[in-house]
Every structure is written in structure tokens, then in C-alpha cells.
Specification:
The chain is an alpha+beta fold. The chain has one domain. The protein has three helices and five strands, in the order αααβββββ. It has helices at residues 5-14, 16-23, 25-28; strands at 31-38, 42-44, 52-54, 57-63, 72-77. The protein has a three-stranded antiparallel beta sheet. A two-stranded antiparallel ribbon has the order 2-3. The relative contact order is 0.19. The mean pLDDT is 79.
Length: 89
């Protein structure tokens, strides 16, 4: 684990709603950010990949509107010190 990871993970958990307002303001209007659920770091990918991956920060956020409890969005944040080729957006 890089030395900056724990600090940034703690900051992102604490200021999660504010961070999303900065990077995805159009999405925030559709989310209920009152109680994000931060999930385990190990994530099992869907078929055909079927291999586990470790993610930096994974949160489940409920969507606003009718039956919001039954609908949610997973938000995955990777903490990197610099971009790498093939990293994508």
C-alpha cells in the first residue's frame, strides 16, 4: 500500500458527498448521499472475468425517487499518484 493511500481513503470517506459534488455534479442530483455504505475492498468481478480485485474505495449509494431502497449505484474510486497507460477515464 502506498503511503498516501490511507490518508486519501480517510479524506474521501469523510468528504464523500463533497467530492462527488465536485467531480460528478450532474450525478449527485440523482443520489441519496445521506448514508453511503462503504463496502469491503475485495470485489468479485462478474462473468466472464470471474476473478477478484482489490479496490481502493467502493461505496453503495441509494438512488433518489420511487422505491429508492431497491435501487442503488456502486461508486468505485481508485487512488493513484499519477496516470498510467491503459488506465482509462
Amino acid at each position: 500500500m502506498a503511503p498516501h493511500d490511507p490518508l486519501f481513503k480517510s479524506l474521501l470517506r469523510t468528504f464523500f458527498a463533497g467530492f462527488l459534488r465536485l467531480v460528478a455534479p450532474e450525478l449527485v442530483a440523482r443520489l441519496d448521499l445521506s448514508a453511503p455504505v462503504f463496502l469491503d475492498k475485495e470485489f468479485i468481478a462478474s462473468p466472464p472475468l470471474e476473478r477478484s480485485r482489490l479496490v481502493d474505495l467502493l461505496a453503495r449509494v441509494a438512488l433518489q425517487g420511487e422505491d429508492a431502497r431497491a435501487r442503488s449505484l456502486l461508486i468505485h474510486i481508485e487512488i493513484e499518484t499519477r496516470s498510467r497507460p491503459g488506465m482509462g477515464r
